[in-house]
Amino acid sequence: MLLTVIPFILSMHRVASSSGSITLKCKDLKVLQLEIPGMEECLNISRSIEALSSVESVMMMYPFFYRPQSMKLKDGWQLYPLQHYYQQIATETTAWRLSCVNGEFTVCPSYPAAVIVPTAVDDNTLKKAARFHQGGRFPILSYYHKKNGTVLLRSSQPLIGPNRKRCPEDEQLLSAALNRGERGFIIDTRSAQAAKQARMMGGGTESKSSYPCWRRLHGPLERGRPLQESFIKLVEACNDTSLSMDRWLSKLESSKWLAHLKGALSTACLAAQCMEREEACVLVHGAEGTDTTLLVTALAQVILDPECRTLTGFQGLLEREWIKAGHPFHFRCARSAYSHARLKQEAPIFLLFLDCVWQLGRQFPFSLEFNEHLLLVLFEHTYASSYGTFLCNSEKERCLCEVKEKTHSLWSWLNQPSQQKKHLNPLYTYNALVIWPSVEPQSLQLWQGLFLRWIRSSQYLDEAWAEIQRLVTSCEDAPEESAGDRQCHSQPDAAHPHRQTQLGNAG
Ligand SMILES: *[C@@H]1O[C@H](CO)[C@@H](O)[C@H](O)[C@H]1NC(C)=O
Ligand SMILES: *[C@@H]1O[C@H](CO)[C@@H](O)[C@H](O)[C@H]1NC(C)=O
Ligand SMILES: *[C@@H]1O[C@H](CO)[C@@H](O)[C@H](O)[C@H]1NC(C)=O
């Protein structure tokens, strides 16, 4: 599929007088070498590829032209309606309500039309609180932890600035999120130092005196350019099979990718611990609230909630916490790891999330209903896709481009039975428990299935999985009291003595 390939023509040279060669470095990390007889054809092909791979306008992109016969355009776009999810919460707890204050995307351009907020706060107060947050991202509910009735909120940084501005409406909104006498935790995804420095630029973080019921914690995470450089370095290191062991380890270390994984998982565990163990409400934000914030809130939900670990539940989570929540996919996933263009907005935040989920799946092999293949498919489709699901930066842009009317939904393709079968984990057993990952450096591994995908064949691994699938299926088909029955009941992996996460700054 040439179009998922998004090539950068790095070199084109004359092989013989009458032929040429084109090297394509693709967004999915594949490298292709094309030998083309005929110099003129070679030049023509390279020109077309260059033109097709640098389409700027969203509406000229492939999803707007892709029309598979077996699919209908409108299918899939209504699979995970946000309103239903929020309405469900609003019926379970009277303390929260659905608000359409952002119906026209005027209060916050990067939020969806419907958001869920404390019942005690009216829309006017929300509007004022929005003006006190970067990009209008006022605190809204991200997840309701049924078991304990605690909530996870997210926002962007408050615009406190050098003069320590206050906003009574924002203070009212945050105290309405807590029940009487409850306390909450604010998890800032920047270091205390960085949060303080942000005041010089008009941002900042909630002070103890203005928000007395909230206690602030910091879980500093890397973002932006340093994260992109980490990705580029790791991919470079993985491609070089001539490295000695020492050189490989030193390159792996200097890429810092595993350290970023550890940071993301630790901060997500911190948020989950505050909710599950301290029974407290949690607000997460960094600066813009569209990147590391979503990384933490989405991961915390996979850790806490078994629903988010099912195939459809996970898709719903991506829809809510990444796509509708306004993660700028168009900016962040423009070029992938091989581009030398210094794109200011590019960063593999979503890939880091997928890698964290892969680490969870490796530590809890029975607890995710989907397999690695789904994560790989999602990685590819965020960077280049025939479907419109990951296009644009926000719901507002998607409405303007009529993405839902003019492109197909990735979910409607993924949920066809033939596709679903490929993405299910044969070992899955429903596990109602929280899955606390180990975040020790020793427990985190290179995601070979992604980073070594084009370098070594996965044939033997694929065969092993096919065999596991066969064993599980034949086991399930066996008659009730057969001897094999005993083996069918795999223990949920949460019963295994996993080491608990140690978080120095958790208390
Ligand atoms: C290359 O492209 C030009 C302009 O589109 C066209 O006239 C020419 O026939 C092409 N050459 C080949 C060998 O396809
Ligand atoms: C919160 O969850 C814990 C662990 O499941 C449980 O022991 C506790 O009773 C719950 N608290 C509330 C208020 O539901
Ligand atoms: C990967 O390494 C090979 C040689 O080991 C080199 O020819 C190729 O260009 C490299 N690919 C990338 C994308 O750097």
Automatic annotation (TrEMBL):
Q: Which GO terms describe its biological process?
A: negative regulation of autophagy; phosphatidylinositol dephosphorylation
Q: Name one GO molecular function term.
A: protein phosphatase binding
Give the domain of life.
Eukaryota
Keywords assigned? Signal
**Residues annotated as signal peptide:** 1-18
Report the family membership: Belongs to the protein-tyrosine phosphatase family. Non-receptor class myotubularin subfamily.
Q: What is this protein called?
A: Myotubularin phosphatase domain-containing protein
